[in-house]
Every structure is written in C-alpha cells, then in structure tokens.
Write a structure and sequence with these properties.
By secondary structure, this protein is of the alpha/beta class. It folds into two domains: 225 residues, no CATH class; 110 residues, no CATH class. It is 43% helix and 12% strand.
Length: 407
C-alpha cells in the first residue's frame, strides 16, 4: 500500500462518520474501492503510532508536535470528560460488557491565543443570552420556565441585558481572546496519565513561557488535580456556564412560582458574573437555614438537597470565580472552545451501534481524530515522515488441534 493511499484512508477514516461511510467516499470520490475493514486497520496502525509519538520526550525529534519559534502571548488549557462505547476485542460485533460498554474518555484543547486587556471590566453586565429563559434552560438541560412563553414578561430593573429606560443598548467591545492555534488531546487514559500527556503537549507548545496563562474546567475533581500537579502557574477559572446552570436549577428548586424563580436566578447569576460569589453563597445559606438540611434519603430534586449541592459547589470553587479580574486580563470565562471540541470528537467516535475495541481500537480512533482536529497539521506531518511500510497481510491465527486425552 502506497504512502499516498495510506494518507487518503487515514483522513477518510478520521473525518467520515464511520469506516463504512469512509469506504463509500473512497469509492465514489477517489474512485478507489477499499473495504471498511482495510480503512479500520490503517486507522488503527496510524493511531497507535500517533500515541507512541504523543508519549515521547518533548525534547526529542520523536515528539509529535513541532516546537514553535516563540511562546504564546496567552496560553489557554481546557479539559473535560467524554464517553465512548467499547467492546472486548476478538469477540465480534455487539455489546460484551455491562452498562452497554460505556467508558470515560479524557479530552483537552491547548490554545495559543491573543488577549485584549483592559483597565476596567469590559463587560460588567452579563450577555443578553444569559437572560433568555429558553437559552438558559437549554444550557441547564431542563425544561424552560413558563415565563419564557409569556407575551410580556414581568418588568424587573435587575434583568440582565436590559438597559435603563430611555437608553439604547450599546453592545460591549469584544474582549474575548482570539484563538490562533489549537492542538487537541483525547485518550482513554485515566486522569493521572492524561495529566502527563497534557503537560508534555504544553511543554512542546512552549505554554509555560507564555505571558499569560489560563486553565479552565468545570467542577470535576480530576480537572483541578491536573491543574494542581502540572499547571500550577496557570490562572484557574471555573467555567461560568456551569455556574449558570447550578444557579438556574437552585432558583427553580426554592421558588414555586416561575416569575419569582426567574428573578432570583437573574439576581444570583448577575452577582456571580460580577464576582460577588460570597454574597450569593450567603443568600443560599439563608435559604438552607430556612428550609433545613436534606435527609439522607432525599431525592436529587429535593430543594434542600439542590441547595446543599449548589452551596458546596460554589464554596469549593469560589477562588476560581473572579470573573471581572479575568475579563480585564483578557482571559476566557467559559469553556466554549472545549464544548465545541467535544462535539467534534463525538461526531466521529460516538453514535448508534458504534463500538470500539478496548483499548487499542478506541485509543487509535481518538488519536487520529485528535490529530485531524489540531491546527498545527500534525497528522499531515506524521504521514509525510511515516516510514514507508506497505501494509502486510495479518497472519492467520494458528489452528488448535484437538489432542486425545488418555484416561
């Protein structure tokens, strides 16, 4: 198999929805009939090669990423978990495991960006979308409050995104950092090993030398364990979208009326956006004193339990919620880049009746997909320098002959 054909099959396998669709593309577009199994074998081999280079010493030529000429002005690291369905290798198609074979994946994006700094908070009021009931409900993955369908929502001077009467809405200047180069990591590894992968990639990309550094995550403990162990000099930032979701759900839990719940959410969300997290926590604690502690058997929807969970979440992350300071420094306050990346990864690895052999098949497709989604053309560079090894036919497993057992 020629290097050119290997390259085509690798990209087809990385970008098409499935190996079957990749085979159709090869036949109809490239005019070259290739079986889905052949494409799968190519992707597996290339993916495992990428994994070996990913784990190489960042100071050697075996390293996957090329070292940039200079460090970035702003280095942004974001990470999040995902899910992939796996099966036991050598057992044919279908489910071979409990819980339908679901395994957790780890994903990260490392972004060279350009910040815009300001002496004053460039956006002291929350974006209008955070005051849209339907949009907020969609973010929180729950039903919209009935206020969303009202012909004329009740007026409130504290509504986010609304200017005072008689004044025109003036959109704030776009202070958000501009993405320059994104590199992607995705793996079946546990958080300890994945943290090492992230640290190696950051070193290759000269992130420790950046003028400004930010590490974003949600409330998962492994996010911040990685940051503590490998990115201690990076500013820790809790994704504001997760904060918004918690505040929306707790406001619904403590108020029966949708209008009161919505107004309460707006006040708490606005306080968090302004960095007044301590005040928000105090108000939540007052509600807890009023409603009492949840019993051990309380369901997740119990207002007392929702309150307790939200207070714990905000208290544990209060030091990562200095949002006005982050905006003045030109740092991101949401993991929008990460959320977009997860969707791009899932497009290829997650779907109906889509299973991957564990661990090699799953790891291989994650490596190829991550390399294809990186902006530094690392997949192209790897394929160009890959040893020209024609694909050899795999030897058949030897047949086991039955031996007569003497009694």
């Amino acid at each position: 198999m020629t290097p050119t054909l290997v390259r085509r099959l690798t990209y087809a396998g990385a970008e098409a929805r499935s190996f079957k669709r990749a085979a159709i593309v090869m036949k109809q577009v490239a005019g070259q009939p290739v079986s889905a199994k052949t494409i799968e074998r190519v992707v597996r081999d290339v993916g495992l090669e990428l994994a070996r280079r990913r784990d190489a010493d960042p100071r050697t030529d075996d390293s996957l990423a090329r070292r940039p000429e200079g460090p970035p002005a702003l280095a942004v690291v974001e990470c999040d978990g995902g899910r992939i369905r796996t099966r036991e290798p050598g057992h044919g198609p279908g489910v071979h495991r409990t819980s339908e074979g679901w395994r957790e994946t780890k994903n990260a994006c490392l972004i060279r960006a350009r910040p815009t700094t300001s002496e004053e908070d460039p956006e002291p009021e929350p974006p209008a979308c955070f005051a849209d009931p339907e949009h907020v409900a969609k973010i929180a993955e729950t039903e919209a409050l009935s206020v969303a369908s009202m012909a004329s929502p009740p007026e409130s001077p504290s509504r986010a995104g609304e200017p005072p009467e008689g004044m025109e809405m003036v959109p704030p200047a776009d202070w958000r950092p501009k993405r320059s180069v994104r590199t992607v990591l995705s793996s079946m590894a546990d958080s300890k090993e994945f943290g090492k992968q992230m640290a190696r990639e950051a070193k290759r990309r000269r992130f420790p030398e950046a003028s400004a550094k930010a590490f974003l995550g949600d409330g998962l403990a492994w996010n911040w364990s990685i940051r503590k162990r490998h990115f201690g000099e990076f500013t820790p930032i809790l994704d504001f979208i997760h904060v918004l979701s918690y505040l929306f759900l707790v406001a619904k839990a403590v108020h029966e009326g949708p209008e009161d719940a919505w107004d309460r959410y707006l006040a708490w969300m606005r306080g968090a956006w302004r960095g007044e997290v301590g005040q928000v926590i105090e108000e939540l604690q007052a509600w807890r004193a009023k409603l009492g502690e949840p019993p051990a058997t309380a369901p997740d929807q119990d207002p007392r339990k929702v309150l307790a969970v939200t207070i714990t979440y905000l208290s544990n992350n209060e030091g990562r919620m200095r949002y006005p300071e982050y905006r003045r420094s030109g740092l991101p306050v949401t993991t929008a880049w990460m959320e977009s990346l997860v969707k791009e990864v899932n497009y290829r690895v997650k779907g109906t009746e889509m299973f991957w052999n564990d661990p090699e098949g799953a790891e291989a497709i994650l490596q190829v997909r991550a390399a294809a989604l990186s902006d530094d053309e690392r997949l192209e560079a790897h394929l160009e320098t890959r040893p020209g090894c024609p694909f050899t036919r795999r030897p058949r497993a030897p047949r086991l002959t039955r031996k007569k057992i003497r009694i």
